[in-house]
Design goal:
The chain is α/β, with parallel strands linked by helices. It folds into two domains: 1-86 and 182-190 and 212-269, Rossmann fold (3-Layer(aba) Sandwich), CATH 3.40.50.300; 88-177, P-loop containing nucleotide triphosphate hydrolases (Rossmann fold). The chain contains eleven helices and ten strands. The chain has helices at 51-58, 80-86, 103-111, 119-124, 127-146, 162-174, 192-207, 219-225, 243-247, 250-257, 267-283; strands spanning 11-22, 25-36, 40-44, 66-71, 74-75, 88-90, 180-184, 211-215, 228-233, 236-241. The chain has a six-stranded mixed sheet, sandwiched between helices. Strands 2-1-4-5 form a four-stranded antiparallel sheet, covered by helices on one side. Strand 1 (11-22) and strand 2 form a beta hairpin. The longest helix has 20 residues, at 127-146. It is elongated and about 85 Å long. It binds adenosine-5'-triphosphate. Adenosine-5'-triphosphate binds at residues 22, 25, 27, 45, 47-53.
Length: 307
Amino acid sequence: MTTTTTTTAETVLDAGGVTMRFGGLTAVRSVDLTVNSGEIVGLIGPNGAGKTTFFNCLTGLYIPTEGRVTYKGTVLPPKPHLVTQAGVARTFQNIRLFSNMTVLENVLVGRHTRTKEGLWSALLRGPGFKRAEAESRERAMELLSFTGLAAKADHLARNLPYGEQRKLEIARALASDPGLLLLDEPTAGMNPQETRAAEDLIFAIRDQGIAVLVIEHDMRFIFNLCDRVACLVQGEKLVEGSPEVVQGDERVVAAYLGTPFEGAPGAEEVAEVEAAEAEASASAPADAAPDGGESTTRTTGPEKETP
Ligand SMILES: Nc1ncnc2c1ncn2[C@@H]1O[C@H](COP(=O)(O)OP(=O)(O)OP(=O)(O)O)[C@@H](O)[C@H]1O
């Protein structure tokens, strides 16, 4: 299903007709999605549905084969650092911290897109650089307090427990002062307590005026957190709506359980394969296996041993 999106003054992200092909594989097919200010939007879908590929198209890691992506009405440049500079920050499915740097240093790295001091100023450590450095440290410490990591500012990132490493990734993303934050599986590997804390943190980020788009497999988390949810299946947007609408949609349930329904992307191909298999097993003698091995015809009852 594709919905018509209307650009309003409130639209932060507007992705229209985004398609990404890798050779013969269409990983994302003509996906439209908007995120408005004050919103937390969820992106769900089974493994391989194209969620991360779609994120990569939004953040300049991939240049979409077709479609366009705008942030606050301006087309996003096709380079990750320029996308960050424009106001879109992200975290990754696999944590990407500088593990041998301290927690504070990791956040300072995320701050560099917002500092204007050049290389010479940094090397000569002039007054402009010192002032900018002090401001960056102050902002970084604020973010560490906001994410609950201030007491660990001097710890090496690699020594943080897993849940805190994920929080640190978020703090680092926030250091670029984004208007939109993209989170790719922020609770992956977390225990229930850490997941609840992550939920509170994302609500707090939204309350600071940052729109959020989040990919997640934990359905309870996503339906509790999001104002709107879109479900991708085999690269296409299948359903979009409120958490109540999406979780009650039989097509979403079927996609997760792997049961294709009429009209689902790929359902026709699955039906064809099933019909061909049924025809082949109907025409083959039950006790004959074409390759001389075991017959593929299965009976429903317990198999009897032949004497
Ligand atoms: N760089 C690439 N080159 C070729 N194929 C790719 C590439 N990246 C992704 N794909 C393919 O695109 C499809 C979508 O993958 P993607 O990782 O976007 O799915 P996903 O919904 O994020 O899955 P998961 O929930 O498992 O992370 C998959 O078939 C994947 O193998």
